[in-house]
Amino acid sequence: MIFPAELSFIARALIGVVIASFVSAAIGHILTSRGITFLSAEVAHAALGGAAFGVLLQTLGFLWFDPLYGAFLFGVVSALITAYAGLRGSREQMEAAIGVSLAMSMSLAVVFLGYIRSEDMPKVWGYLVGDILLLTVDDLLFLGSMAILVGFFYILFRRELIYIAFDMESAEVLGIKVKFYHYLGILLAAIGVIVTTKALGAILVYAFLIAPAAAANEIAKRMYQIPLITLAIALSSGIAGLALSFTVNMPASGTIGILASTAYLVAILYSRFRK
Amino acid sequence: MMKYAVEVEDLTVTYNNIVALEDVNLRLYDGEFLAVMGPNGAGKTTLLRAILGMVKPVKGKIKVYGYNVFIEEEKVKHLIGYVPQKVTLSKAVRLTVEEVVLMGVLARKIPPRIPSERDVSTAMEALKIVGLEELWDRDFLELSGGQQRRVLIARALVSKPKLLLLDEPLTGIDVRSQAEIAAFLHELNRKHRVSILMVTHDINPVAEYVDRVALLFKKIHAIGKPEEVLREDVLSKVYGGRIRVFSYGRVCFAIIGDVHR
User: Fold this and answer.
1) Which CATH superfamily, name and number, covers A9-205?
2) A-side interface with B, Cβ within 8 Å?
C-alpha cells in the first residue's frame, strides 16, 4: 500500500491538491492553447450528469455501476462530440458544441436527479461542488494513476498538441497526424477534467484547471515554461487555499478557486505592466 | 533532371457539389517563379491544398517532381515548403520565433521531438536566410505582419524544400514589407533555385519578379509572361470591367477593383 489507510483528511486533501496541480499543468496548457477552455466546464458538467445517471442505476438495482463509470461515459462522449464538431480546427464550431453539450448534460442531470432518492443526492452534489477534504485513499490512488496517464501522454505528445493548436494546416502539411492528435488532446483533457471533478467539483475544476494555465500564458516567455508556471500557480493556490481554509474556517474548494482566479488577474496586470 | 516541379492535369474539385476548380491544367517548371492570381472565391487556396494532397479531387492528377501527391505523400512532403495564410494561425498559442521555426524541423522527427543542437542551428540558418536572426527569442505574436510572414517562410525553408508554396503571403502587411518579401522571394528563387508557386489576389508587388502569371477563376483563363497576362482585355475576363493596367518601364501593374479580406 502506497498510502496508509489512516492518513489524515488534511494529508489526503494535500495529496489531492498536488495531483490535481499536475493535471492542471498538462490539461490547462492543452485547453488554453486550443482556445477552448470551456471544454473543462462542459466535461465537468457532463460528468455530473453521468454521476447522476450512475446513482440512478444503483437505485434501480445495478449496484455494480459506480457513479464514476457514468461520469467517465458522459464526460468522454461529450468531449468526443465537441472534438468531432471541431475536426477542421474551427474554434467557433467547437464552442457551439461545448455550449450544446453543456446544456444537454445539465438537462440530463436535472432529469436523473428527479428520480434519485433524497438520501443519495449528496453522491451527485459531490460532483458539483466537490469536497477536497472528503477524498479517500482509493480516490487518491485513482486520481494519481489517471494523472500519470494524462501526464505521460502530454509529455510525449505536447509538441504535436501545440503545433495543431497553432497552425493545424501547416502541421498536416509537415506530416503530423492532426486528426489523431486533435482527438487525443481533447480525450486527455476530458480524462483530466473527469478525475479532478471527483476531487474538486464541477465548479472549481474550471478555476483550478484553467486559471493557472491562463495566468502562465500571460507570464511565460517560452512554450516549455507554461506547464511549469501553471504547476507552480496551481500548487501554491491549492496549498495556500487549504491552509487559509483551515485558518479562517472557509470552505476549502471555494478558497482554492478564489486564489487560482486571483492569480490570473495578477498575471494579467503583470503582463500589461511589463509591456 | 525533372523538368516540372508541379504538373496539374484536368483537376476538378468540388465542395458539396459546388465546383471550386474545373479542368485546371497547370505546369510549374523546375526553378520557376509562378504567381496564380484571381479574385476571392477563384479557387486559389483550393489549388494549393490540392497540390499539398489535402483536398481529394473529383477528377485529375497532380504530380510534384514526378511523384503523385495522392499516392506518394511522404516523398512529396519532403519536397515542399508551405507558407499558410496568416488568418489560419491561432493567437491563443504563445511561441517564440525559435519555436515556430523549429516546428519545421521537429515535425519531421518522432515524438517527443526533442530538438538537437543541429536542429537548432538548422533553424537559425533558415532564420538568417530571411534576415531575422536577431528576433530568435522574440514572441512570434508580437512581431509585425511582415516579420511574421518571413518567420513562416523560414519555417518552410528549414527542410530545404525544392518547391515553395505560398498562400497570400503579402496580404495584410504594409507596402514596404510587401516589397521586401517580394524581393526576398525573387532572391530565393534565383540564388537558391527554389521553385515558387504563390497564390495572390494582388499581383503588383511581385509583378517584376515572377516568370509567369496564371489567371485563375475556377479554371485557368490565361497563363504566360506578366506582360501577356496583365492586360486589360485578359484580366477583364475574370474581373469584369473594373480593370486598368499601367506600365512602368518593362513592368505592368494592374489596378483591380477587388477587395480581399
Assistant:
1) ABC transporter involved in vitamin B12 uptake, BtuC (1.10.3470.10)
2) 32-35, 91, 155-160, 162-163, 165-176, 217, 220-223, 226
